[in-house]
Amino acid sequence: MRMAERAVRHVLCRIDGGIATIRLDRPERKNPLTFDSYAELRDWFRDLPEAEDVKVVVLAPNGGNFCSGGDVHDIIGPLTGMDMKGLLAFTRMTGELVKAMLGCGRPVIAAVDGICVGAGAILAMTADLRLATPGAKCAFLFTRVGLAGADMGACAILPRIIGQGRAAELLYTGRVMAADEGERWGFWNRLVGPEALEDEALGLARSIAAGPGFAHMITKTQLVHEWNMTPAQAIEAEAQAQAICMQTEDFRRAYRAFAAREKPAFAGD
What we know:
Blueprint: E1 11-16, E2 19-24, H1 35-47, E3 56-59, H2 72-79, H3 84-102, E4 108-112, E5 115-117, H4 119-126, E6 129-132, E7 137-139, H5 154-162, H6 164-173, E8 176-177, H7 179-185, E9 190-191, H8 197-209, H9 213-225, H10 231-245, H11 249-259
Parallel strand pairs: 2-3, 3-4, 4-6, 5-7, 6-9
Antiparallel strand pairs: 1-2, 7-8
Helix pairs in contact: 1-3, 5-6, 9-10
């Protein structure tokens, strides 16, 4: 299956050289999510494990902002009139997007500029790598609208990135995490100027895409699954994973290239 042939209507998707660049397409509203864009992103990431033409995904800003969370009029308003069955269907659907991103088998890079709040902060959190500009404003602002900070896996994932106390502060207060603060805490891998953000993200994506794709899939799988393992279980799981990778042609290519003092050209097989 080729993701370039998959129709998308509610987000922008460009695939070039094995890199898929995804943007929310409502820059005039700072790119809020809607019921439709949530579902479309969920389905797109669900299909990604079978994709032949995507090696890395970049979540990019649009119009100077990343994502302003759930749309106030298109999501928040309708939710206030739903019954419990409808509400649970919605919250499970948003969680399915996170699970699809974690299970997609491809490294995901978030390139964040401007507003990155609510569900937008969750998208950044769920990415494997996060780049941001000094002007990025990230907030898990659920408590500020009367909801729990426990949303879309935030209470499980965020502490693993920045630590329990820091995560608790952000999730209880809903305050903005300044860009330099997020870099110090390890939420942002690094800060880059707005004019260089996408070039930096794409350069990182190209570097990863040139690597062993099957092995990257195994790495992502283990990063997610080992959250629930003891150290002994993780060591055994990684022994099995590495033995599988040693059967790939990419492993043999790397050996031949090393012996010939050349750079290996990985093919993902």
